[in-house]
């Protein structure tokens, strides 16, 4: 069986990790999502721990593996001021089974996030998380060669 390699795209996290000002309906209460913050939301333990979490919790969909599909899914979600996640959705799709797996991984990370701060207070903020799926080392090399 092919070794499955899931690689977190570190250089994409900074450009995607931004928020916007908006008011969202969630669980019958309004939640303000902040735009300008002192500190962005962060996975507890930092980017390296987030990468490990993604790698250790990924279950590559059988059909995507059989079809030898590799690529990027970007998941958008809100890190609420209590550290919980809400409004989880796919911002950049690859295909439905890999999109669902990316959402499942993000959902598993609920409560493992530190919220953003503004003026010293915890605030809710949008976060864009790129997750790259590779079926093999060869697919990873091909992907990055095409990006150059």
How would you explain this protein's 3D organization?
The protein is α+β, with helices and mostly antiparallel strands. It has one domain (5-147): Fusion Protein Consisting Of Minor Coat Protein, Glycine Rich Linker, Tola, And A His Tag, Chain: A, Domain 2. 32% of the residues lie in helices and 34% in strands. It is built from five helices and ten strands, in the order βαβββααββαββββα. The strands form four sheets. The protein has a four-stranded antiparallel sheet, sandwiched between helices. Belongs to the TonB family.
Largest sheet: 4 strands, antiparallel
Second CATH tier, the architecture: 2-Layer Sandwich
- Helical segment tally? 5
Question: In what range is the share of β-strand residues?
Answer: 25-35%
State the total count of DSSP E strands.
Answer: 10
Helix content: 25-40%
Report how far apart the termini are: 29 Å
Query: So what's the overall shape?
Result: elongated
CATH topology: Fusion Protein Consisting Of Minor Coat Protein, Glycine Rich Linker, Tola, And A His Tag, Chain: A, Domain 2
Rg from C-alpha positions?
16 Å
Whole-number total of structural domains: 1
Structural class: alpha+beta
As an assembly, this protein is: single chain
Largest sheet: spatial strand order: 1-10-5-6
Mean pLDDT: 81
Series of H and E elements: EHEEEHHEEHEEEEH
What is the CATH level 1 assignment?
Answer: Alpha Beta
Low-confidence stretches: 1-30
Protein name: TonB C-terminal domain-containing protein
Membrane topology: Single-pass membrane protein
Subcellular location: Cell inner membrane
Organism: Adhaeribacter arboris
């Amino acid at each position: 069986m092919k070794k499955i390699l899931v690689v977190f795209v570190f250089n994409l996290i900074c450009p995607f990790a931004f928020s916007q000002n908006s008011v969202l309906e969630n669980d019958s209460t309004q939640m303000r999502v902040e735009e300008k913050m002192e500190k962005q939301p962060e996975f507890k333990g930092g980017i390296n721990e987030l990468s490990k979490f993604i790698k250790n919790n990924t279950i590559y969909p059988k059909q995507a593996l059989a079809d030898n599909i590799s690529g990027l899914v970007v998941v958008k979600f809100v890190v609420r001021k209590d550290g919980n996640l809400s409004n989880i959705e796919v911002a950049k799709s690859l295909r439905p089974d890999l999109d669902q797996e990316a959402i499942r991984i993000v959902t598993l990370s609920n409560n493992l996030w530190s919220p953003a701060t503004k003026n010293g207070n915890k605030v809710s903020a949008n976060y864009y998380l790129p997750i790259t799926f590779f079926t093999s080392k060869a697919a990873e090399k091909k992907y990055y060669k095409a990006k150059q």
